[in-house]
Amino acid sequence: MQCSALRKNGFVVIKNRPCKIVDMSTSKTGKHGHAKVHLVALDIFTGKKLEELCPSTHNMDVPNVTRREYQLVSIFFFRIYTKFDNPWDMSLISRQLDIADDGFLSLMSDDGETKDDVKLPDGEIGEKINRLFTTEEKDTNVVILTAMGEQAAVEAKEAPRGA
């Protein structure tokens, strides 16, 4: 898509990352060239701010972004053990053991298909999912954003009654 056709709140690929445009401005046509478009965008998965300056006639890639809501069925954890330099020396195990708990969401779509490959996110969203589902024991819906081979839980909310 041409830079001049991009719009605020739309999506664009900057530095090979799917981004949402949060600000854009166009400079006047210069003496020796085209007008320039300055894009300010946030990576939709990391939240990192990215910028791009391109001629208004330059084509930019636009990612195919899907947003889908699922019902949360459960949260499960894998315990991963690594760094066994010498597995026979039991005295070193406690110093060589690196333990990571990775939480994954078990989700169900409206048509009954299950999805178990989305990580429980860190930070505010992950805490909200945990609080609604585990602490408050509410029926919880989770919104999954997918683009460019990546996916992430970006929102959690109490499921409407009767759903």
UniProtKB/TrEMBL annotation:
It is found in: Cytoplasm. Keywords: Cytoplasm, Elongation factor, Hypusine, Initiation factor, Protein biosynthesis, RNA-binding. One of its GO terms (biological process) is positive regulation of translational termination. One of its GO terms (molecular function) is translation initiation factor activity. The keyword Cytoplasm applies. It comes from the Eukaryota. Residues 92-157 form the Translation initiation factor 5A C-terminal domain. One of its GO terms (cellular component) is cytoplasm. The keyword Magnesium does not apply. It holds the Pfam family IF5A-like_N. InterPro entries: IF5A-like, IF5A-like_N, IF5A_C, NA-bd_OB-fold, Rib_uL2_dom2, Trans_elong_IF5A_hypusine_site, Translation_prot_SH3-like_sf. eIF-5A seems to be the only eukaryotic protein to have a hypusine residue which is a post-translational modification of a lysine by the addition of a butylamino group. Belongs to the eIF-5A family. Translation factor that promotes translation elongation and termination, particularly upon ribosome stalling at specific amino acid sequence contexts. Binds between the exit (E) and peptidyl (P) site of the ribosome and promotes rescue of stalled ribosome: specifically required for efficient translation of polyproline-containing peptides as well as other motifs that stall the ribosome. Acts as ribosome quality control (RQC) cofactor by joining the RQC complex to facilitate peptidyl transfer during CAT tailing step. This is Eukaryotic translation initiation factor 5A. It comes from Pestalotiopsis fici (strain W106-1 / CGMCC3.15140).
